Amino acid sequence: MNTDFLLSYNAEISKKIGFSFSAGGNAMSYKYRRTDASVEGLVVPGVYKLANGINSPIIATYDKNKKVNSLYGLLSLSFDDKVYVDVTGRNDWSSTLLVENNSFFYPSVNTSFILSDIFELPSAIPYLKYRFSYAQVGNDTDPYKTSKYYSQNAFPSSATVPATLYNANFKPEITTSYETGFESRLFKNRIVFDVTAYQTLTKNQIISVPLDITTKLQLWSFKFRRSAEQGTGINSHKSNYRFQ
């Protein structure tokens, strides 16, 4: 279940400066319930009912609870339809992390400059834009990974030891990305040319790995300190249409 609110404000500070601001929040409550029942054989073949089992039904129940509360904001500025800046910020509070680590903030900044309107460029380049962005994305983990929780068992008044080794040191996963590039339209807007370079860095990534069977556990969830990715991309194509 999600509950949201959003407040927005738009204004023109002057004929050349545009301004808009939005602020909101979200309360997410996730509840998962599942009950499985099975029998090992049938008394009357072809009659698929629990009451037709040769043994008493084996009942298994599963449940998960999770809550995330969020506040966020967006600020957009434009100057003379030549420079654009968008700034966002979001803070989440997750129930799946320990109290001392359950709050995490992640911002972003996106800018673009229409260079063909700012500077006098050759007639062969009617449009040229430069863009740069910095963004962070936060993430929590699944429920019941930070402490030893017992699962319900099919036998009355009993419980099952979890198969995943818990970790009380989990921190929010934060992915930071940078991207920059140029977009150009050449020769009367008939050729579109786009160049992009990016880098992504993930910190405190939470992953699970198998454990030795002698530990009587199946998985170990742990915090992977850092992972990185970077690259470049070039895209160009010819258009039969002219952009106005």
Give a brief rundown of this model.
The protein has 244 residues and is an all-beta fold. It is built from one helix and twelve strands. The strands form two sheets. Strands 1-2-3-4-5-6-10-11-12-9 form a ten-stranded mixed beta sheet.
Q: Please tell me the overall pLDDT.
A: 82
Helix-and-strand structural type: mainly beta
- Give the end-to-end Cα distance, rounded to a whole number of Å: 45 Å
User: In percent, how much strand structure appears in the residues?
Assistant: over 45%
Task: Give a verbal description of the structure.
- The chain is mostly beta strands and 244 residues long.
- Helices cover 2% and strands 62% of the residues.
- It contains one helix and twelve strands.
- The protein has one helix at 115-118; strands spanning 2-12, 17-38, 58-79, 83-94, 103-114, 127-139, 151-152, 159-160, 164-165, 173-186, 191-210, 219-238.
- The strands form two sheets. A ten-stranded mixed β-sheet has the order 1-2-3-4-5-6-10-11-12-9. A two-stranded antiparallel sheet has the order 7-8.
- β11 and β12 (219-238) form a beta hairpin.
- The longest helix has 4 residues, at 115-118.
- The chain starts with a strand and ends in a 6-residue tail after the last strand.
